[in-house]
Amino acid sequence: MTGIICGTGSYVPPYSMDNNDIAKLVETSDEWIRERTGVVRRHIIEEETTVSMAAEAGRLALADAGVDAKDVDLILVSTISSNVILPCAACEVQKILGADHATCFDLNAACTGFLLGYNTAVAYLESGVYQTALVIGSESLSNLTNWSDRGTCILFGDGAGAAVIRAGEGRHYLPVTHSNGAKGEALTCKSRHDHNGLTRKLEPENMAASEYSMQMDGQAVFKFAVRSVPQAVEEVLEKNQVAQEDISCYILHQANRRIVEAVAKRLGEPIEKFPMNLQEYGNTSSASIPILLDELNRDGKLEKGRKIVMAGFGAGLSWGASILEWK
Ligand code: COA
After folding, report:
1. Are 9 and 137 in the same domain?
2. How far apart are the C-alpha atoms of 89 and 102, rounded to whole Å?
3. Would 289 disulfide with which of 44, 99, 114, 236, CB 3.0-4.6 Å?
């Protein structure tokens, strides 16, 4: 018994900003951003929210799977940017979709979030606790972005992706997951709610927007990614006794084209095995893997029975890789 992805969906806001639009906000250029990151444009919410995008991606994934919302046992939303704290985004999605029988909770593991959500759902399915799970990554990173910091605002975008996973017959693969909280300062976003007015007061000078937006040591994160992702991929292949040549494609978190290229090089794999869409969406954190998965699925690029590696990495620090067989 294992978990099998039987449907995918995604939602990306129609409003987009290209690099020239960003160059009107900060001192940068289309050429610099393309060269250093591969990003050309990113989509930004207008009326949408993290919850509304999650629900739409989830609805499309259920339709693709041919699964009724009432048959979903588990809804798991991975997000760092929900527009609601209580109730959790997953419960809000449940309400919108009418998935009355589902158990719902959120998961915060930044850009590794969808991978950990997938692993969590598969563990529940394999142990027989649930039969059908809807795993969603949804982010409104534009709300957490410091739009006057050229080191970060060029990178991120908004969107949501989802997968329906069902218990079924197939090989069980063990995932590889790691965290290193000691290195967490490399990518942070402080709470907007860390003063209660009773015992903790924030001085006005400490309330600058930059303090409450994402802050990143870009080079540290870059080095971490190019070192840890190939290691995690090699570890997961070794752990499951799967050869690299049996992997049809590697679906990496879409942070930066240079990171993806460096991972391909370190693994000695052709770049063609690493599909990318970061040029269109930027880094959408936990939404990036399921959005890409959905695009590949809808374009008919995932062959039945072929093995795929998914790999995520990001704030925490956290990272990992999983093997799955396409439906
Ligand atoms: N436009 C123009 N110049 C910029 C710039 C921008 N948007 N951002 C930074 N610069 C400048 C810097 O100020 C610096 O100038 P200086 O040499 O005069 O001081 C120079 O470019 C080099 O800066 P540096 O930070 O070393 O650039 P970099 O090559 O490391 O690229 C990132 C910056 C952010 C693109 C890169 O570090 C990166 O992609 N890191 C990983 C980030 C990531 O993926 N995070 C999410 C992981 S989940």
Report:
1. yes
2. 13
3. 114
